[in-house]
Design goal:
By secondary structure, the chain is of the alpha+beta class. The chain has 3 domains: 142 residues, no CATH class; 109 residues, Immunoglobulins (Immunoglobulin-like, Sandwich), CATH 2.60.40; 113 residues. It contains 12 helices and 18 strands. The protein starts with 8 loop residues before the first helix and ends in a 5-residue tail after the last strand.
């Protein structure tokens, strides 16, 4: 049964109830009420421990005092940080993340034990020790926050990145303070957030009776209902390791090299980085989030696959046959015909063979090549075969662009830019999409075509087929 009927849709949208639920205010209030209840029980246990102490019941005093301290510690460690992040202003809330270290846990437990002993014995020296230990925790939080202030990050990434290749980047950490230095700071990747489930208002259908098949139901009305939907997972980031800076002097810039390797092609984005420190006492790992947007387009690998070495001699042979003529690169030596010019006669070959021989050259001004990637529709080929075709297209483009060839590129949703890196960037992010084949829209030119397609052999026009080498993308789903 839907939660809300269609008649209440306008009223709900006017109140922005979905936005209200999206902020998860209910969870904040639930945590707050739990904290109040926990502190109330802790206060009651502390009062009863005082009564038990005055009555002379040592065991009851010990148990109640321990329960009061434990409840207060649980509320302080679990609920208070969450409420602080939710309630404080956005700048402070988004500035820091906190992770309790093993040292901090042990230190807190020792503080609790000494506090229990102070309550049970009434020893003033133990109270002073507990106060000093708590003060050290406060000082640690303040000093670590100051240690991370006025630090700026600059991440410099290479312009061209290929999948599977190790590339170098650089992280620059700048201390803008005039007098204070920073100690023991690490540049870390952003903390991965767990996917959250959110309430969303979606279209639905009110049907009656609800348990019957659709054709047997009496009423069908458009409706709205709330649905709990998991948020989308975070995309892959650029920076996965950490870089440690033991000491950053005042008004100084320090840099460190960064080794990056991306296993798959695609677009990698990161909107912020983290500055983490355990200074001075390692009770907490405090991480300051620094907004810094970076994006890297990772090209497909251009290391030739095995199939590349099989088809390249065939492609090269047909391409050279297509463009042979007058030029500068020797294509072959053949028999002289009456149509040949005498200036192309190879006299050494003629003297050795005893018959006239001429040199035939490739035409440099007509070494035109067009690589066509005919993107298939979803579900036509398996993912492995599709990635193999992407890699083969990138390898062919990389190879012939360095062979003194006038090369061009054609693909669905590609603007025709002849720049090699523009085509590699297109191949980096392309995915199977429904649509018409790009082969049907090819214009007849004097360029030789290398076509990667899933279309059958007999579907090409004669003009395209006669000046093309076709690589069929195989590997059915």
């Amino acid at each position: 049964m839907p939660i809300l009927t269609n008649s209440s849709q306008t009223e709900i949208e006017g109140w922005s109830l979905s936005r209200f639920l999206h902020t998860q205010i209910s969870e904040v209030w639930l945590r707050f009420l739990l904290a109040i209840v926990g502190l109330a029980f802790a206060f009651a246990a502390a009062l009863f421990s005082t009564v038990s102490r005055e009555s002379g019941d040592i065991w009851a005093t010990f148990i109640l005092a321990s329960a009061a301290l434990l409840l207060a510690a649980i509320v302080a460690l679990t609920t208070v940080p969450y409420l602080m992040r939710r309630v404080m202003i956005a700048r402070v809330r988004d500035a820091f993340d906190y992770d309790v270290t093993r040292t901090g846990i042990i230190y807190a437990l020792v503080s609790v034990v000494i506090g229990i002993a102070a309550l049970n014995t009434g020893n003033n020296l133990l109270y002073i020790v507990v106060a000093a230990m708590l003060a050290a925790m406060v000082v640690s939080g303040i000093v670590s926050a100051i240690n991370l202030e006025e630090l700026e990050i600059d991440v410099r990434l290479p312009e061209h990145v290929f999948a599977g290749r190790l590339v170098s980047g650089r992280i620059v950490l700048k201390n803008r303070r005039r007098w204070l230095s920073s100690f023991s700071v690490s540049v870390v990747p952003p903390k991965q957030r767990k996917p959250r489930r959110e309430w969303r208002l979606e279209r639905a259908t009110f049907a009656f009776p609800a348990g019957r098949a659709r054709e047997k139901q009496w009423i069908h009305l458009p409706d709205r209902s709330f649905r709990l939907v998991a948020s989308a997972p975070q995309p892959a980031g650029i920076f996965q390791d950490s870089v440690y800076f033991p000491y950053i002097p005042a008004k100084a810039d320090l840099s460190a090299d960064l080794a990056l390797k991306f296993e798959r092609r695609g677009r990698y984005q990161q909107d912020h980085f983290g500055l983490a420190t355990r200074f001075p006492f390692a009770f907490l790992t405090k991480t300051r989030r620094v907004p810094l947007a970076r994006e890297v387009i990772v090209y497909p690998p251009v290391e030739p696959p095995e199939e590349f070495f099989e088809v390249l001699p065939l492609i090269t042979g047909e391409f050279e046959s297509f463009v042979r003529g007058r030029g500068y690169d020797l294509y072959r030596i053949r028999e002289y015909t009456h149509e040949d010019s005498a200036r192309h006669v190879d006299w050494k070959a003629t003297a050795k063979s005893g018959s006239p021989k001429v040199r035939e050259f490739t035409r440099e001004d007509e070494r035109k090549l067009r690589i066509v990637f005919d993107n298939p529709a979803p579900g036509v080929v398996a993912e492995r075969a599709y990635e193999h075709a992407i890699n083969l297209a990138a390898s062919l483009a990389w190879h012939f662009s360095r062979e003194n060839t006038d090369i061009s590129f054609v693909a669905q949703a590609y603007d025709g830019n002849p720049d090699l890196y523009a085509f590699l960037a297109h191949l980096a992010v392309v995915q199977p999409e429904p649509g018409d084949s790009v082969v049907d829209k090819l214009r007849i030119t004097d360029a030789y075509n290398i076509i990667l397609t899933t279309r059958p052999r007999g579907s090409f026009s004669t003009a395209i087929w006669g000046s093309s080498y076709v690589l069929f993308i195989e590997g059915r789903v």
